[in-house]
Design goal:
about 575 residues; Rossmann fold; 19 helices; 15 strands; alpha/beta; six-stranded mixed sheet
Length: about 575
């Protein structure tokens, strides 16, 4: 449960420490005192989007801190453990800070976390129901969620969603393959021409360069042979050739070395040059012998080159483009020639997935049918206690156009809340007060199913009063036997039911307006109830009326179930500050 809420520099709040207890906590105060600011600060702590305009004027940051004693919540502790957050202590401290620069920071037990993690953890600790939630009752998706939660059908719905996703993927594959097959079929004749033309040619990557080189050699065979022979003869053909003339150079180098041994290094360089020339002569002579005219071979090569050039003009510009085009055409043509088997395989899988979806949807429908009748019965039984003796709720299931990710039916809540009135969808209810009471009845029924330890009712009592307000307070107190409840209310009949009563007051410190909270008991509480009743709290008759209301509130007292340690005197152990 929420033990303490600490707020600093939020709107007009300078510093507020809100102590809470087990059971029904009621927060009251005059209009504009700051009750909504406290609920807004709690929303910030639970991960809601926080704007910089919430920061108190003159402050550089706003801070909200909540101290929780979650008790035995294995799933929550497992979540924290997965994120490396220390949760061994009985106390859990959540903290959120918003700076004027727009930067938001969050911590859990001193460990920095993202706003998303803070929201995930907060959603397991606190559920806030406000006036907008009663309006949300008219939303069909919300109604479906309420029914599925009540009917323990959320896992069944998840299986339907999973089966629908798998079926949708197969249907998409089937459509895409069929479309590609149809497109390929219309192009089949052209594809066959392309495939035959390219595959018959057997093009090889880089082949065109090799062809060009061999064609050039064969086209100039006689010239190449003559040039190579001339070069070889110039170096070694006769006594006037280059190599023969180098003999005088060799003799001169030998004489130099006899006189000056340091010139011997020139001899080794000369020998290397002569060796290189000898090797060049041999290569030129071999090249000249290898070159011979072959007109037949030349014609074959030129025809091959012309074929490849023709293919590159059609499917190029490069030979690799031609090869890739042939592969793509063959793949597309295979869809026509062999894709029927693939399509049959996918179709078979799709039919099987449809059966899986139908089975999962049927199980979800069974759970919804059972839950719809029971939910309608339990809510209808509570409506007389809320001032609607002739009220009745029905949960209708109508077949959807097709089975989708949320099942095979649409869920609609309809109600007749007054004698002689027609059954109408909740979304068409004119009275906000009626919707608020239906929401309270639903919340009471669902409370036993919810694992969230703390429920917050934010002025859901709008539009009601008198005996109905008294009955609403009784319902809240009943829910508080299994949950910690925080109700923000302006009705004395609800405040009188509280186990723990906190008053919010606006005050001025110098020229600065601020809000503060006070836990009221005994005489101060009588004064606050008298004020809420609309009388003069200083008059004894108003205080007597307030005392009578408080005594009535205690007559049907249901002691709260405390799942976390509470010290004597009703004050909770304080958590460690971040």
């Amino acid at each position: 449960m929420l033990v303490e809420l600490r707020i600093r520099n939020v709107a007009v709040i300078d510093t507020v420490v809100l102590p809470l207890a087990a059971g029904l906590n009621v927060l009251t105060g005059e209009t504009g005192a700051g009750k909504s600011l406290i609920v807004g600060a709690l929303g910030m702590l639970l991960g809601e989007r926080a704007a910089t305009d919430r920061i108190r004027s003159g402050a550089d940051k706003a801070t909200v801190e909540g101290v929780f004693e979650p008790g035995a919540m294995p799933s929550l502790r497992a979540m924290l453990d997965e994120r490396g957050i220390d949760a061994d202590d009985e106390t859990l401290v959540l903290k959120r800070e918003i700076g004027t620069n727009g930067r938001s920071r969050a911590w859990i037990n001193g460990s920095p976390v993202t706003a998303t993690v803070l929201a995930d953890v907060g959603a397991r600790l606190v559920s806030v129901l406000g006036q907008h939630d009663s309006r949300q009752l008219g939303d069909l998706e919300h109604q479906r969620d309420v029914l599925d939660a009540f009917a323990s059908a959320l896992e069944a719905r998840a299986r339907v969603a999973e089966a629908y996703a798998a079926l949708s993927a197969l249907r998409r594959q089937e459509r895409e393959l069929e479309q590609r097959r149809q497109e390929a079929a219309t192009r089949a004749d052209l594809l066959r021409v392309v495939v035959r033309e390219i595959e018959d040619a057997h093009p090889v990557t880089g082949e065109e360069d090799a062809l060009d080189g061999e064609i050039r050699r064969l086209s100039h065979a006689e010239e190449l042979q003559a040039l190579a022979g001339q070069a070889a003869a110039a170096m070694a053909g006769d006594d006037r050739a280059a190599l023969a003339c180098l003999g005088s150079v060799r003799r001169a180098l030998v004489s130099l070395e006899r006189i000056d041994p340091d010139t011997g290094r020139w001899q080794s360089g000369f020998d290397a040059a002569v060796y290189a020339l000898d090797e060049l002569v041999r290569e030129l002579e071999g090249y000249a012998e290898s070159i011979e005219a072959d007109p037949a071979r030349l014609r074959v090569l030129e025809q091959r080159r012309d074929l490849l050039l023709s293919l590159m003009r059609k499917y190029g510009p490069t030979l690799q483009d031609v090869i890739d085009t042939g592969i793509a055409a063959r793949t597309e043509l295979n869809l026509v020639d062999g894709g029927t088997h693939d399509l049959a395989t996918i179709t078979g899988a799709r039919v099987a997935a449809e059966r899986v979806l139908a089975d999962a949807a049927a199980e979800l429908t069974r759970r919804r049918q059972s839950g719809a009748a029971q939910l309608a019965l339990e809510v209808t039984q509570l409506l007389p206690e809320l001032g609607m003796p002739e009220g009745r709720l029905q949960v209708l299931l109508s077949a959807a156009e097709h089975t989708g990710m949320f099942g095979a039916e649409q869920v609609t809540f309809v109600a007749a809340l007054n004698a002689g009135s027609e059954v109408r969808p909740l979304g068409r209810m004119a009275s906000g007060g009626e919707l608020a009471r239906v929401m309270l009845a639903l919340s009471t029924v669902l409370a036993r199913l919810q694992q969230v330890p703390t429920l917050v009712f934010d002025e859901v009592d709008a539009g009601i009063g008198g005996a109905v307000a008294w009955q609403v307070g009784a319902l809240m107190r009943r829910v508080a036997t299994h949950h910690q409840v925080l109700a923000i209310s302006h009705l004395a009949q609800i405040a009188a039911r509280a186990h723990h009563h906190v008053v919010v007051r606006k005050s001025a410190v110098g020229t600065v307006t601020t809000a503060d909270t006070t836990v009221v008991e005994d005489a101060p509480r009588v004064m606050e109830i008298a004020r809420m009743l609309g009388g003069d709290a200083d008059r004894e008759v108003s205080r007597a009326h307030a005392r009578e209301l408080l005594e009535r509130g205690e007559e049907d007292h249901h002691p709260p179930r405390v799942d976390t340690p509470v010290a004597a005197g009703g004050r909770q152990r304080r958590g460690k500050p971040v």
